[in-house]
Design a protein that fits this description.
- The structure is a homodimer.
- By secondary structure, chain A is an alpha/beta fold.
- Chain A has 3 domains: 114 residues, no CATH class; 188 residues, Rossmann fold; 71 residues, Arc Repressor Mutant, subunit A (Orthogonal Bundle).
- Chain A is 49% helix and 10% strand.
- Chain A contains 19 helices and 11 strands.
- In chain A, the strands form 2 sheets. Chain A has a 9-stranded mixed sheet with strand order 1-2-6-5-4-3-7-8-9, sandwiched between helices. A two-stranded antiparallel ribbon of chain A has the order 10-11.
- In chain A, helix 13 links the parallel strand 8 and strand 9.
Chain lengths: 416, 416
C-alpha cells in the first residue's frame, strides 16, 4: 500500500502514519462490523500487520473467510481519496481523535464476549455483538474524541406521533442549550426531531449512519444530513458506498448506546427496535431512559414496557432536566428540586452495594481516572466498573471529566 | 346502655351482642379515628368495658382526654336508630362481616406504631397513623368481609383531564367485568369515574366516605352515592352526622389502601394527595401502581414522580390487565402475553431475596394460611410477610384465596 499525498493525509486524520490509515481503511472495507475473529486478530496483530496478512491471504482461516468476499474490490487508497473529496475523514483507534472514552465500554464488553466465543459458547455471526468498530468515517466540525461525555442518545419510532415529535424536538433543544450533545440515527420520526432540536438551539448533534456517508439514508433526510455535517458530526463505520443493509442498523445502535452517556427512547411500539437499543445499553452499563405517554398510544407501549420490566428497567424521564441529571456532570446540570439529598456522606457510602463501594474506593480525590485504571485499583472487573459508575454519578458521589472520573467535590470536602 | 329492638338489631348486624354494637357505636362517636391510645385501650379492655370506662370517666388519662369533647353528646342508641332509618348498619370487629382479611395489614402496622409510641418516639396526633378503625358504618348489599381480596383502589385528582377520566372509567369497567371490586373515595374527577365504570359494568364498587353516610361529600355526587348504595357498598368510619373535615380525608385514604389488594393512582399533580395514599400503601405492604400520561400534562406529573422514585416506586400500569396481574389470583386473571416465565422453579426460588424466601417456606402446599400464621411459621415479622407476599404473588409462586395464601399449583406440581 502506497503513501497518501500530504494534503490528503492532513485532511483525513492528524498525527497518524499513512500506513495505519491505509490499513484501517482497508480493514473497514473488507471486514463487516461486529465480527469477533476479525476484531481479535486486528487487536493482536495491530492494524498494519493484520491488513497485510489479510491482503496476502495469510490471516487465520476464519478471518480470511470473513474478508474474502470483498478482498478483490478493496482499494483503501481510492476509498480515502473518495472520502476526502466528500469532506469525509477516517478516524482510527491509533489517533487522539478516536472516542476512547466513549468506546471503552465496548472494548470491555468485547473482552467478555471474546472469552465466551473462545469457549465455543457463542457464534460470531450475531450482529448485536458488542464489538468495537475497526475505524470510523466522519464528516463535520465535531470532535469524536469527546463522545461519551455529556452526550444523550435520543431515539425512537419512525412512525411517531405528534406528541413524540414535540417531546424529542423540545428536549433536544433544551439539552443542546445546556451543552449536551444529542446523538441519533438520522431516521424519520424521533431521530430527525432529535437532530433538528439540537440544530435549532445551535447546539451539538451527532448522526450515526448505518450506511456510507455518501449515501444518506433515508434519502428524504439528505438535507438533514447536510445540516448536521455543517455544524455537528456525521459518523459511519463503513466507507463511502456502503449500502444501508438491515443488520447494519442493529450494529449502528450499539454505537449510539456506547457513545451516549445515556440513551432516551422517546416513543416506541411494543417489540420494536427500542428493545435492541435497550439491550445494548444494558450490556454496556449505560443508563437507559424512556419517556412515558398516554396508555392509549401504541407508540408509547414500548416505552412503558421498558419502564415496567423487572430486570434492568428504563428510568422514566418526564423532562429534559431529568435527563440532564443522569448524563450531566454533578454541579453542571440544573438542580432537581424534588431531590432531598442526605448530607451524611458516610451513611450514603454504607448504603452502596459492595461493587459500587469498591469502585468508589478505586477513585482518587484529585486526579481523574479512566474506568480501566479504576478497575485495576479496585481489583474489580472493568464491566463491573461501568455498571457501577452511573449509580455513583446519580448519587453525586463522583465527578465526570473528559479524562474520566474522580471523587465528587462535596464528598472530598466532607471526608477531609 | 339499653337493648335494641330485635328488628333494629337484625338490621344493623348479625350475630353480635347488642351491648357490643352499642359500645362500638359509642366509641365510634367519641373517638376520632387513628388515635393510638384509644385504639390500644379498646383492644386491651374489649369494646364493652372500654366504652363503660370512658362513659364513667375511668379510662386512662390520655383516652379520657381524647374522648371528652364528644362525651356529653354521645347517644349510641340514637345513632344506631338513625343509621337503621337510613339503611346504614354498623359493622364491628366482633362480627364475621368485619373485613379481617383486608384490615390485618393495619393491625400489624398498628402494633409496630404502638411500640414506637410507647417508646415515646412518636406523637399520637398524626392522622396518617396506620391504626385500624374502631367500627365501620356501611350501607348497601356489598359484603365488607371480602374486601382485600381482588379489590383495586382507584384514586386520583379531582381536577383530572379527559385522559384521566377515560382511563379511570374504562379500566374500572374492565376490572369490574373480571370480578374485581373497585374501591374509591367518591370525590369528583378520577374517584367518580372509578365508581361509574364499575357500575356501568354492573360490577362491585365500594365508596369509602370521609364523612357520615347521611352527608354525601361532595354534595354534587349525592346521586352517585345513592347508586353505589344500591348495588355496592358505602363505608364510613364515622356515625351519621360526622362532618367531612380535612384530616378525615387523610385517614380515609389509609382505609382505601388497606382494603385494596393494590391501589392505582390514575392522575395526580406533583405534591398532591397521591403522596399520602402512596405512603399508606408503602407502610401497609400493599402494591402501589400509577398510570403514565403525557409528560406535558401536569395531572400526570405526580404519577411519573411515583414511578421514577428510587425508594418504593409505583409500578407503571398501562392496561387493566396489568392491574389484574397484580391484584388477581394467579390463574384467574388474563395472561400477560409479554411475560416469558422461566420454568425452572428452583432457580426462581433461588433468586428471591432472603425475606421472600423465608415467607415462601412458611407457606403450605395444601391449606391456605393467613399472613399472621405464615409469620409465625417463617419466624419473620408480620409486616415483612406483607411486604413479601406481593412479590411472591407477582412471580406466581403463591396462590391467594379468601382464607389466605398457599404455594401455587405450578410450584406444587414442579417440586413434588
Amino acid at each position: 500500500m502506497g503513501g497518501l499525498s500530504t494534503e490528503t493525509a492532513a485532511q483525513v486524520a492528524d498525527e497518524v502514519a499513512d500506513e495505519v490509515l491505509l490499513a484501517r481503511a482497508f480493514l473497514s472495507r473488507v471486514g463487516e462490523p461486529c465480527n469477533i475473529p476479525m476484531w481479535a486478530f486486528v487487536r493482536k496483530a495491530g492494524a498494519v500487520d493484520a491488513a497485510r496478512a489479510i491482503a496476502a491471504g495469510r490471516a487465520p482461516e476464519e478471518v480470511q473467510k470473513h474478508a474474502a468476499p470483498r478482498l478483490a474490490e478493496a482499494d483503501p487508497w481510492a476509498d480515502l481519496e473518495t472520502a476526502a473529496a466528500l469532506g469525509v475523514r477516517l478516524v482510527v483507534p491509533e489517533s487522539d481523535r478516536w472516542p476512547h472514552f466513549g468506546l471503552a465500554c465496548l472494548e470491555f464488553a468485547a473482552e467478555v464476549r471474546l472469552g465466551t466465543y473462545r469457549a465455543g459458547r457463542r457464534s460470531h455471526e450475531n450482529y448485536g455483538e458488542p464489538i468495537p468498530p475497526l475505524a470510523l468515517w466522519a464528516k463535520g466540525p465535531g470532535d469524536p474524541s469527546t463522545l461519551g461525555h455529556r452526550t444523550v442518545g435520543m431515539v425512537g419510532s419512525r412512525a411517531c406521533t405528534q406528541y413524540g415529535e414535540h417531546v424529542a424536538t423540545q428536549w433536544s433543544y433544551e439539552l443542546a442549550q445546556q451543552g449536551v450533545t444529542v446523538i441519533s440515527g438520522g431516521a424519520y420520526g424521533i431521530d430527525a426531531c432529535a437532530h433538528r432540536g439540537a440544530l435549532a438551539a445551535e447546539g451539538d448533534t451527532v448522526l450515526i449512519s448505518a450506511a456510507g456517508l455518501d449515501r444518506p439514508y433515508p434519502p428524504g433526510n439528505a438535507r438533514l444530513f447536510d445540516r448536521v455535517a455543517e455544524r455537528g458530526l456525521l459518523i459511519s463505520e463503513g466507507p463511502p458506498g456502503m449500502a444501508p443493509h438491515r443488520h447494519r442498523f442493529l450494529m449502528r445502535n450499539r454505537l449510539i448506546a456506547a457513545l451516549s452517556s445515556g440513551t432516551v427512547i422517546v416513543e416506541a411500539a411494543r417489540r420494536s427496535g427500542a428493545a435492541n437499543t435497550a439491550s445494548h445499553c444494558q450490556r454496556l452499563g449505560r443508563p437507559l431512559m424512556a419517556v412515558p405517554g398516554p396508555v392509549t398510544s401504541a407508540m408509547s407501549a414500548g416505552c412503558h414496557e421498558l419502564i415496567r420490566r423487572e430486570s434492568d428497567p428504563a428510568l422514566l424521564v418526564a423532562s429534559s432536566a431529568e435527563i440532564l441529571a443522569v448524563v450531566g456532570s454533578p454541579g453542571e446540570g440544573m438542580p432537581d428540586p424534588g431531590d432531598a439529598r442526605t448530607t451524611d456522606i458516610r451513611a450514603e457510602l454504607d448504603r452502596l452495594d459492595p461493587a459500587a463501594r469498591r469502585v468508589f474506593e478505586g477513585l482518587t480525590a484529585g486526579k481523574f481516572s479512566r474506568p480501566d485504571e479504576i478497575a485495576l485499583r479496585a481489583g474489580i472487573a472493568p464491566l463491573e466498573v461501568f455498571r457501577a459508575l452511573p449509580t455513583l454519578e446519580l448519587a453525586d458521589l463522583v465527578e465526570v471529566g473528559e479524562a474520566g472520573y474522580r471523587v465528587a467535590a462535596r464528598v472530598r470536602d466532607e471526608l477531609k
